[in-house]
Structure formats: structure tokens, C-alpha cells
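Continuing from the previous page...

OK, I double-checked the sequence for Circularly permuted type 2 ATP-grasp protein against my notes and this is the correct one:
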Amino acid sequence: MAERQANFDEMHAGDGSVRPAYTEYCHWHGQQDTAFLRRKHADCETNFRKTGITFNVYGEDEAEERLIPFDMVPRVITAAEWRRLTRGIEQRVSALNAFLYDLYHRQEIVRAGRLPMRLLRDNAAWLQQMVGFTPPGGVYTHIVGIDLVRTGPNDWYVLEDNARTPSGVSYMLENRETMMAMFPELFSQVPVEPVSNYPNRLAKSLAACAPAAAKGKPTVAVLTPGIYNSAYFEHSFLADQMGAELVEGSDLRVKDGRVQMRTTRGYEPVDVIYRRVDDEFLDPLTFNPSSLLGVPGIMDVYRAGGVTIANAPGTGICDDKAIYSFMPEIVEFYTGEKPLLPNVQTWRCSDKDSLKYVLDNLAEVVVKEVHGSGGYGMLIGPTASKNEIAVFRKKLLANPKNYIAQPTLSLSTCPIFTRQGLAPRHVDLRPFVLVSPDRIDITPGGLTRVALKKGSLVVNSSQGGGTKDTWVLKET
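Thanks. Re-ran it with the corrected sequence; updated C-alpha cells here:
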């Protein structure tokens, strides 16, 4: 994979012609009045404000809540492209689940010398409390988000795995609802796969993972840290859309060997908890004793088979970027196949030779913390100042195992709407995957995140990025 190359424009070919995925959309767009499009752009922002689609930013002096920037030009993927992606995503998610089972049982991949033991021994995300325990249905990763980037017509790479508490699906759903409300005629002209049934599919998938103790229709609850969490909008949105209960730790208690929820009729058992609380805060009797966000004793009930926790505690180790660097070996070890979706080339700074290369090329690479997320704790060499590079050099030398590095990819671009017209911006894609004991269900499309600043490669909303509706065209 070349480290630097021309950006792949997903809408236009090199000769300026429109690529097949965008033919219908561009035909429609070319017929629209500019003033009409500007009004619609303003209407989209107004709609998001009225709906309350915001996220919280920690450590900022300005207002805690910010509007999620939305761009009304869709990102379009053909049916054939999506078929190839789904095969690779399904393979990877299957491998992740098998990997987690192995890590908490015989650790065959370590015994075979394919993964260093130190990646578990020195990793806070690997939980001793999960050793020897198999979750209901054998599912660890009930909801997975796989971050993909594109560099060419058929060149897709996995940038990150999100197997702990992947977020963003509510924005995927609201983006589609907004587009359908603003441009209903467009959807009559362009055949697009639906995404609105995701909450129903999520509810069914979670119910299918209910423990043996469940009687009748399983009761599902979404466990949130509360209104000050950055993703609270999503927690409440999904609970409402699924018809599930939205609860905080204080609403739950362990009673008669079950996790029970406070209701107007007294306490009633909960069968499946879609938790949006990190492992550390899940059970003060097992993890952080000062946590007020979790449920005392929930891990005992879980290990006794009295409740399903989605995603399973301990899945966060798959979000570790040092583990990510071994994913090609992990996929092959558990599936017997070469990865259909390759990783981005990655240098492990814990390795002496890799560290030397990274230090010698800091101005050309992207350096990330192995536990980092949200665009924080990273260095983008080509856009960094000399001082920023010097600071990161010291960090790498002080604690090299805390970092990995990757080449500065030429991410593909999709157009955004500006007052001057359409303008290309870099994008990534997070498809959402639901896993139950008998199937892997991939929602067609996912969340496209876009770097709204010209030339920026950082798509995270906390770093100034926005989102787009993602269209997967129906088979014709």
C-alpha cells in the first residue's frame, strides 16, 4: 500500500465524469435551483436543532452540548460494492467473537505463538473476571462498529474495530429520516436500501441472546450513565425506538438472584441489558468500588446465567490498537481464510525496529494511543507543528508500548454542500453489525463521518467533523 497517493473521488472519475454510484443523484442535483438547495441546507440544521441531536464535549470552556454537523449530500455505495464489504465485515466479526471466546478460555492463539501474552497480561481491558465464562448464546460482541476507509475503487481498509460500546447509530437513523423528510422525491428516483428497521432488528437480536433464566418475552433495558454522557441522546433514542426501558444504575438492583428494575409495580426482572457504561463502572463490587453508575452484584448474576450484558464485559480488548495490528493473524487463525478486508499498515512502537522507523518519520505518519478514541491522543505528522512533533517524540520514547503508527492515508473524498457549490472532503464509514447466536446482521450503509474542514483527515465530531446519510443502492 503506497503511503501517499492521489485522493480517490467517490463521485467523479479523473476525467470529470460521474461514477455509476452517483449517476441518479447527480442527475437530480443538476435539476435543482441553487437557492432551493441553500434553503434545504438551512432546514436540515434547523431540524437537527429541534430534534436535539447533540453530543457533549468534555474539557471545553464553551457550551457542553454541540450540534452534530450534518451534510445533505449523500455518500453512495453500489450494491456490488456493498456485497464485497459485507463478506469482509462478516468474516472479521466472526473472527472477533471467536477470538474473545479463546482469550477467556484456552488461549490457543497465544499457545500457537500467534499473539504475544504480554498484550493480555499488560492490558487493563482484558478482564480476569471473564475467564472460563461463556456469555448466553456464546455471543460476546452483540453490537459491533467496524471503521472503514477507502483509498481507491476497490481498496477498502479497516481502520479500527469497535467491539465495546460502538456509538453513532442514532445519527445514521436521523440522517436518513432528515433526508427523506427534506427530499422525498429523491428517494422515489433513487432505489436505496432502508435503515429505519435497525431498532427493531436490534431489539430482536438482543432478545435472541436472553439468558436461560428469561421467561416469556425477554425484557430489554438500555443502561446509560445519565444525561451528562456524551452519547446520552443515542441511549434515549435507541431505548425509545426499540420499546426498551432506559435505566440508570440507581434504577436497578440485584434481588432474588436476578437484576431487577424499579417500576410503578415494584421491582421486575430484566433479562438483557444493553449497557452503555464502561467495564470499570459496571459493578462497584467487582471493578471500581467508587462507581455510582453501575449495579452492585451484577457480575455475580451475569456469571450465574441470570442476565445478558451486551456487549460482554472484556470485549474492549478488541478496541486496543495493538491487538488491531494482529487482526490479519487473528482472522486467519479462527476462520482459516485470509482477511477479505485488510488492515491499514501498522507499526507497533513496542517493537524496537518499528519505533526507530516511526521516530525517523514522525512528520509523515499518524501516531495513535493504543487505547485512544475520538480523535484524541494522536499525532497527524503532515499537519503537525515542529513543537507537536517534539512533544510526541518524548511521549514515544517514554512509553513506546502505548502507541502504534500508521501511514498517512489518502482517504477518499465525497462532496459536501457549500455556498460556493459542491466541494470534496475526506470521509470514513462505520457499518453497524448485530450478532445473535444464529446470525450476523449487517445494516446496509452505516454512518459516514466527514471532515468538514478543507484538507482535514480527522472526521470525529469532537474534532470538527460531521456526518452524512449513507446510501446503499438496491440490486437492479
